Amino acid sequence: MELREWQSILVPYKYAVEELKVKFKNIRNELAENGEYAPIEFVTGRVKKISSIIDKAKRLDIDLSEIDEKIEDIAGIRIMCQFVEDIYTVVSYIRSRKDMTVLYEKDYIKNNKETGYRSYHIIIKYPIQTVAGTKEILAEVQIRTLSMNFWATIEHSLRYKYNDYLPSDISDRLKKAGDAAFNLDQEMSEIREEIVRAQVMFEMKSIT
Amino acid sequence: MELREWQSILVPYKYAVEELKVKFKNIRNELAENGEYAPIEFVTGRVKKISSIIDKAKRLDIDLSEIDEKIEDIAGIRIMCQFVEDIYTVVSYIRSRKDMTVLYEKDYIKNNKETGYRSYHIIIKYPIQTVAGTKEILAEVQIRTLSMNFWATIEHSLRYKYNDYLPSDISDRLKKAGDAAFNLDQEMSEIREEIVRAQVMFEMKSIT
Amino acid sequence: MELREWQSILVPYKYAVEELKVKFKNIRNELAENGEYAPIEFVTGRVKKISSIIDKAKRLDIDLSEIDEKIEDIAGIRIMCQFVEDIYTVVSYIRSRKDMTVLYEKDYIKNNKETGYRSYHIIIKYPIQTVAGTKEILAEVQIRTLSMNFWATIEHSLRYKYNDYLPSDISDRLKKAGDAAFNLDQEMSEIREEIVRAQVMFEMKSIT
Amino acid sequence: MELREWQSILVPYKYAVEELKVKFKNIRNELAENGEYAPIEFVTGRVKKISSIIDKAKRLDIDLSEIDEKIEDIAGIRIMCQFVEDIYTVVSYIRSRKDMTVLYEKDYIKNNKETGYRSYHIIIKYPIQTVAGTKEILAEVQIRTLSMNFWATIEHSLRYKYNDYLPSDISDRLKKAGDAAFNLDQEMSEIREEIVRAQVMFEMKSIT
Question: How many independent structural domains does chain B possess?
Answer without folding.
Answer: 1
